[in-house]
Amino acid sequence: MAPIIFVLGGARSGKSGFAEERTRRFAAQENVYIATAECRDAEMESRIALHRARRGADWRTVEAPYRLAETLSAESRSDRAMLVDCLTLWLTNHLLADADLDAEGDHLAAALAAADGPVVLVSNEVGLSIVPENALARRFRDEAGRLNQKIAAIADEAWFIAAGLPLRLK
């Protein structure tokens, strides 16, 4: 079974940069960045541009805002390292599409278990703050927590990033 690395942290904590460096350590023939964001406005376009510039040209990007498990299965090879950034955007896409979130999470876990090459996954920790005032935000927070637990349970390594500092959890 190929290694699964889970990187968790808050907004602007340094988790994506850490995950990129962790992915490069596999020294694979190819690094594949699996992007889950949908560019819906100028601010998100700017965020995506910053991520691309930091990664550089040695990454191949595949967009998978919904079909993440299928993308992992299609892209998985023993000589290829994959980085998924990020699970909370993927979850948001499915939440807003009124998808079966448990089934999507199980499908993702199965694809990770079957991966031929290493996979690094990034997710936001959104449960460390106050309880949100609206039902959708509370549901998102709860579903993100459940998804993070599911992925952390199957990961070979789990890291928490705060203020740019990595803390190994597992």
From TrEMBL:
<dbReference type="GO" id="GO:0009236">
    <property type="term" value="P:cobalamin biosynthetic process"/>
</dbReference>
<feature type="binding site">
    <location>
        <position position="63"/>
    </location>
    <ligand>
        <name>GTP</name>
    </ligand>
</feature>
<comment type="pathway">
    <text>Cofactor biosynthesis; adenosylcobalamin biosynthesis; adenosylcobalamin from cob(II)yrinate a,c-diamide: step 6/7.</text>
</comment>
<dbReference type="GO" id="GO:0008820">
    <property type="term" value="F:cobinamide phosphate guanylyltransferase activity"/>
</dbReference>
<feature type="binding site">
    <location>
        <begin position="35"/>
        <end position="37"/>
    </location>
    <ligand>
        <name>GTP</name>
    </ligand>
</feature>
<keyword id="KW-0342">GTP-binding</keyword>
<dbReference type="GO" id="GO:0005524">
    <property type="term" value="F:ATP binding"/>
</dbReference>
<dbReference type="InterPro" id="IPR003203">
    <property type="entry name" value="CobU/CobP"/>
</dbReference>
<protein>
    <recommendedName>
        <fullName>Bifunctional adenosylcobalamin biosynthesis protein</fullName>
        <ecNumber>2.7.1.156</ecNumber>
        <ecNumber>2.7.7.62</ecNumber>
    </recommendedName>
</protein>
<feature type="binding site">
    <location>
        <position position="85"/>
    </location>
    <ligand>
        <name>GTP</name>
    </ligand>
</feature>
<dbReference type="GO" id="GO:0043752">
    <property type="term" value="F:adenosylcobinamide kinase activity"/>
</dbReference>
<comment type="similarity">
    <text>Belongs to the CobU/CobP family.</text>
</comment>
<feature type="binding site">
    <location>
        <begin position="9"/>
        <end position="16"/>
    </location>
    <ligand>
        <name>GTP</name>
    </ligand>
</feature>
<keyword id="KW-0548">Nucleotidyltransferase</keyword>
<comment type="function">
    <text>Catalyzes ATP-dependent phosphorylation of adenosylcobinamide and addition of GMP to adenosylcobinamide phosphate.</text>
</comment>
<dbReference type="GO" id="GO:0005525">
    <property type="term" value="F:GTP binding"/>
</dbReference>
<dbReference type="Pfam" id="PF02283">
    <property type="entry name" value="CobU"/>
</dbReference>
<keyword id="KW-0418">Kinase</keyword>
<feature type="active site" description="GMP-histidine intermediate">
    <location>
        <position position="51"/>
    </location>
</feature>
<keyword id="KW-0169">Cobalamin biosynthesis</keyword>
<feature type="binding site">
    <location>
        <begin position="52"/>
        <end position="55"/>
    </location>
    <ligand>
        <name>GTP</name>
    </ligand>
</feature>
<keyword id="KW-0808">Transferase</keyword>
<comment type="pathway">
    <text>Cofactor biosynthesis; adenosylcobalamin biosynthesis; adenosylcobalamin from cob(II)yrinate a,c-diamide: step 5/7.</text>
</comment>
<keyword id="KW-0067">ATP-binding</keyword>
<keyword id="KW-0547">Nucleotide-binding</keyword>
<dbReference type="InterPro" id="IPR027417">
    <property type="entry name" value="P-loop_NTPase"/>
</dbReference>
